[in-house]
Design brief:
It is found in: Cell membrane; Bacterial flagellum basal body. By secondary structure, the protein is of the alpha+beta class. It is built from two helices and four strands; from the N terminus they run αβαβββ.
């Protein structure tokens, strides 16, 4: 039996106001708004041997697998969610999302 706060798709026959449904869904989401997530923006990656890594010193340049102007990957909790571009916001670096990556999760 359905609880007070749940409903079935059969109950959505138009008798319920869409705005009321959206408001109810928004209130349900409020419970997760304060959960912290880790966001990472990956400019690129490189693979090297430990011997090469140990030879690196100050001023060394590590070549990444991305080209200038190519989109960077944006991860939330180690899950790829978007691609974007690096931007400068005052005196800090930031990221603007240009593409949302659809998840295959069901």
């Amino acid at each position: 039996m359905a609880g007070k706060d749940s409903f079935s798709l059969d109950e959505l026959d138009g008798s319920r106001d869409v705005a009321e449904f959206d408001s109810h869904a928004a209130k349900d989401l409020e419970a997760i708004y304060d959960i912290p997530v880790q966001i990472s923006a990956v400019l690129g990656k490189a693979t090297m041997q430990v011997s090469q890594l140990l030879k690196l010193g100050r001023g060394a340049v590590v070549e990444l697998d991305r080209k200038v102007g190519e989109a960077i990957d944006i991860y939330v909790n180690n899950r790829l969610v978007a691609r974007g571009e690096v931007v400068v916001v005052e005196d800090r670096l930031g990221v603007t999302m240009t593409e949302i990556i659809k998840s295959d999760r069901s």
